[in-house]
């Protein structure tokens, strides 16, 4: 006899209440994905170096045009509050003190992956598409490439491209700014 187990789904509000109550702390590296609390993978040394480079590049190229945010929560829906590796957000004088960034505040999300590439491709990127995130970059550390996802429709992207060393990337919202895969 098999028994089907039911999972308890959480809302973003309940997730935040767990933080306020001390059930989850800042030391719990987790995010809320489709109602489930998911443990984040540790950040590897190559991932961290890549994120530092991107942080420096984006701050240099887009200073005072965007807020470059990393490893902070975005509020996508009632049941999803992921923490992308990096986000380019619309400038706000309050730096999102009143509320977490929403899909309409986001120019670009970046996920950097070595061991989590399958999870990012199969879970996070469809979630981003479903919530209308216009552009996502998935940086595959192992393959030394950047996958660029644009034009969300349903839970997928209509335009998916791969960029390799030597290739030039642009950010859709800032098409006058170019950077190479080698810089990343």
From the 3D structure, determine the CATH topology. tt1808, chain A
Radius of gyration: 17 Å
List the uncertain runs: none
Q: Which architecture name does CATH use? A: Alpha-Beta Complex
- Helix coverage percent of residues? 10-25%
Order of helices and strands: HEEHEEEHEEEEE
In total, the number of domains comes to 1
* Shape category: globular
**The CATH C-level class name:** Alpha Beta
Counting DSSP E segments of at least 2 residues, the number of strands comes to 10
End-to-end separation: 53 Å
Q: Note the main sheet.
A: 6 strands, mixed
Structural class: alpha+beta
Oligomeric state, counting identical vs distinct chains: single chain
- CATH homologous superfamily - what is it? tt1808, chain A
Question: Which whole number gives the mean pLDDT?
Answer: 94
Count of helix runs: 3
- What is the strand content? 25-35%
Spatial arrangement of strands, main beta sheet: 3-4-5-6-7-8
């Amino acid at each position: 006899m098999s028994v089907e187990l039911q999972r308890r789904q959480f809302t973003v509000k309940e997730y935040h209440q767990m933080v306020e109550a001390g059930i989850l702390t800042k030391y719990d590296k987790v995010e809320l994905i489709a109602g489930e609390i998911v443990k984040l993978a540790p950040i590897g040394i190559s991932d961290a170096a890549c994120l530092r480079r991107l942080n420096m590049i984006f701050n240099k190229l887009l200073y005072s045009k965007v807020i470059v945010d990393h490893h902070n929560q975005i509020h996508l829906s009632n049941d999803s509050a992921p923490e992308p590796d990096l986000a380019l957000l619309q400038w706000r004088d309050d730096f999102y003190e009143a509320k977490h960034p929403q899909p309409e505040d986001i120019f670009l999300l970046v996920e950097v992956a070595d061991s989590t590439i399958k999870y990012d491709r199969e879970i996070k990127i469809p979630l981003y598409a479903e919530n209308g995130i216009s552009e996502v970059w998935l940086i595959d550390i192992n393959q030394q490439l950047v996958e660029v996802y644009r034009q969300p429709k349903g839970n997928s992207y209509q335009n998916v491209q791969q960029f390799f060393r030597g290739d030039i990337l642009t950010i859709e919202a800032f098409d006058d700014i170019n950077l190479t895969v080698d810089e990343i």
